[in-house]
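Ticket #4471: structure output looks truncated?

Reporter: J.K.
Steps to reproduce: submitted the chain below (138 residues) through the standard prediction queue, then opened the result file.
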Amino acid sequence: MRHYEIIFLVHPDQSEQVGGMVERYTKLIEEDGGKIHRLEDWGRRQLAYAINNVHKAHYVMLNVECSGKALAELEDNFRYNDAVIRNLIIRRDEAVTEQSEMLKAEENRSERRERRDRPENTDGSNESDSDSDSNADE
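Returned output as attached by the reporter:
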């Protein structure tokens, strides 16, 4: 069996169906004797360019080990599912199990946001900010 990295984009109106789709696809792979090494739901993101007049999509990434038969069946599911607006399948040399760069960047962003917001809530610096804003209006 070979290792693959699969990314598929789901139409934003169908975002609530992503859980069921992922469950169906993982079941398809595992029933054929394959393994899911990594599953990441990146959520709704802005597209680089519009696809069928859609500007956002729900991104999902899978790193799997499966047979060619299971991969062909998965490709057919992507092709005939109108909710999947794009997909990309890349063959990998080995299983990838660590967190992707996309999720690492998202976590770093949220940690920085928390650190930035924390000092504002604990000390009285908010009062000086509001004073400087009112002076700017005068």
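Triage note (M.O.): checked the attachment and the full token line is present. The CA atoms of residues 72 and 78 lie 10 Å apart.
Status: closed, working as intended.
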